[in-house]
Design goal:
Layout: H1 8-22, E1 27-36, E2 42-50, H2 59-75, E3 81-88
Helix pairs in contact: 1-2
Length: 99
């Protein structure tokens, strides 16, 4: 199924789940791509980028979002399983003062 496009309808449904479940944590961007898991099976990879390095959701919230995503994919009769990666920027180091 690699090569099967992610339709605009499917992309919109995935993004809606992410924003509904994780938006309060400062989501800045949602990337939806097709990929393969470790066994070579086709999957949908959802990279969720956050504005604040401290904003990543806790495990329960992240797990609930993943469950909601895959329930939505099932309802849409999408055969691929979804994975969410939480991408948090590293905190910017404090600039050194010049003396």
């Amino acid at each position: 199924m690699i090569g099967a496009d992610i339709s605009p309808t499917l992309r919109a449904a995935i993004e809606a789940v992410v924003w509904q479940e994780l938006g309060r944590f400062g989501v800045s961007e949602v990337e939806v791509t097709e990929s393969e898991d470790a066994d070579g099976d086709p999957v949908i990879l959802v990279n969720v980028h956050y504005r604040d390095p401290e904003a990543e959701p806790d495990f329960k919230v992240a797990s609930g979002a993943l469950t909601k995503l895959n329930d939505t994919l099932f309802e849409l009769k999408e055969p691929r399983f979804g994975y969410i990666r939480h991408k948090v920027q590293d905190a910017m180091p404090e600039p050194r003062s010049r003396r």
